[in-house]
Fold this protein.
Amino acid sequence: MSLEALYDVPAPAKLNLFLHVVGRRADGYHLLQSVFALIDWSDTLHFELRRDGKLARHDLGTTLPADDLCLRAARLLQLHSGSALGTDISIDKRLPSGAGLGGGSSDAASTLLALNRLWRLNWPRTRLLALAAKLGADVPFFVGGDNAFVEGIGERLTPLVLGPQSYAVLKPAAGIATADIFASPRLKRDTPAVILAGFLASAGQAGRFVSGYGRNDLQPIAEAVCPEVRAVARWLEARFGNSRMSGSGSAVFARVGAEERSTWQAGEVPAGWVGRMCRSLEQHPLKGWSS
């Protein structure tokens, strides 16, 4: 029997446990080093097969841009595979936008993985990764399926085994445009690069990453552009003793120890902020969907 639909497909968020800008290419792209860690806060997507070749998206909650990364991913896979099939994509958007959590990129990656199965293409992961790179710097990470040490412009991934961790993740009402952060003349662009072996020696043992390593070079600029980022960071610092912005913001996270309260009370978080307590994931829930 042919597959007609895939329901409840997860698209998890990521945290940048650190993010260093180590240089800039001649074409203007910034060279980065980071650790991307998957967490259990996610969007949910549903895919229904269409035999007329049409691609359509339906928003179950937050209204998304007319031509979002999901549709672009579906169109790109359809073009390169030559498939005559289409799909209806329904998105239950739970991840906040403009947060630095990779929500749009994760949706696109889950779309590639789901349609590879729904359209019975059976592409290996390497072929999907090549398409993912055309969609955005974070998309290959989500297709790859592992927590990773990330280099270059996001295309060089070294899988990492990260120890289990809980995080408090909070985003203020305001979002931040990534382009505004990277365009700032005040952005530090010369953090010394580390090699993976040296990083593991200084940051953790036996692959159990200590998430207090390093810093986020984008955070000072983000706090200047969006003072609410600083307010969230201070709020988390006061409760958990640590905080760091993810990606280009505006979400900020804190490591939460096993002995600390696992949630916050209703009304404790300032009005307009959104967040939740999250746990790390060993790997992407769809890791087994492509070989």
About this structure: Residues 103-118 form the longest helix (16 residues). The CA atoms of residues 33 and 151 lie 5 Å apart.
